[in-house]
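Duplicate of #3305? Posting structure anyway:
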């Protein structure tokens, strides 16, 4: 594979969810459509380049890949799976009221933490992202790897 230094962006048309399938349009940095992709989340993905349509991927034929996550007990208090574990467990057991209460508690705690930081003029120090003008940029992005 050669590096072309082209930027790639996928735009998903969420409205077509109602029609069962979804459409993605892949674009390069010059906003020129490079490839149209039509597919369902769990079926066949077809791509079209020019007038030629071809099978891009058969999702059902691909093996499931187990997620690699640090065990919840080893995660920091603000890491996602540990933070949301009570909500996840309640939803798994169809306890919607408990899940909603746990979600509200998490959100209120986060609001309280922001308020405390503002009052003490403490700035948030992100471990994984840097503030770049108006956007947050991932510190270990592919652009910065050699």
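Output from current build:
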């Amino acid at each position: 594979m050669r590096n072309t230094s082209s930027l790639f962006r996928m735009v998903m048309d969420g409205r077509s969810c109602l029609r069962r399938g979804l459409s993605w349009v892949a674009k390069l940095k010059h906003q020129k459509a490079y490839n149209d992709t039509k597919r369902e989340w769990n079926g066949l993905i077809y791509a079209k380049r020019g007038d030629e349509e071809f099978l891009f991927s058969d999702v059902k034929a691909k093996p499931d890949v187990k997620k690699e996550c640090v065990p919840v007990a080893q995660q920091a208090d603000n890491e996602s799976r540990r933070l949301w574990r009570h909500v996840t467990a309640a939803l798994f057991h169809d306890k919607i009221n408990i899940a909603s209460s746990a979600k509200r508690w998490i959100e209120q705690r986060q609001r309280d933490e922001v308020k405390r930081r503002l009052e003490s003029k403490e700035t948030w120090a992100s471990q994984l992202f840097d503030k770049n003008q108006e956007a947050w940029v991932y510190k270990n992005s592919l652009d910065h790897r050699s």
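Confirmed duplicate; merging threads. The first helix runs from residue 80 to 83. The radius of gyration is 21 Å.
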